[in-house]
């Protein structure tokens, strides 16, 4: 039981730090788009890649390995 309380407290602290302290200054940087949910990096291209991917869903449907960092930052 004490371990669950510690884990829950740690999760709350990290979540609060990211959403209340870390993200507001990052959102003020002018070259970062406000729509963070669609930010992703292709780690390995899919089988049928004919150029760049416009969305992470398009990349995943093609079988690419994607790191969706925008989803994490936008939480």
Q: How many helices does DSSP assign?
A: 3
Model regions low in confidence, pLDDT < 50 over at least 5 residues: none
* Helix-strand makeup class: mainly alpha
User: Mean pLDDT across all residues, rounded?
Assistant: 78
How many structural domains?
2
Which descriptors apply to this entry?
two-stranded antiparallel sheet, 75 residues, flat, 2 strands, single chain, 9% strand, mainly alpha, 49% helix
Summarize the structure in words:
The two termini are 28 Å apart. The mean pLDDT is 78. The protein has helices spanning 2-27, 56-61, 69-73, and strands spanning 41-44, 65-67. It is flat. 49% of the residues lie in helices and 9% in strands. It has a two-stranded antiparallel ribbon. It folds into two domains: 1-29; 33-75, no CATH class. With 75 residues, the chain is mainly alpha-helical.
Structure summary:
The chain has 75 residues and is mainly alpha-helical.
Which helices and strands occur, and which strands form pairs?
Elements: H1 2-27, E1 41-44, H2 56-61, E2 65-67, H3 69-73
Antiparallel strand pairs: 1-2
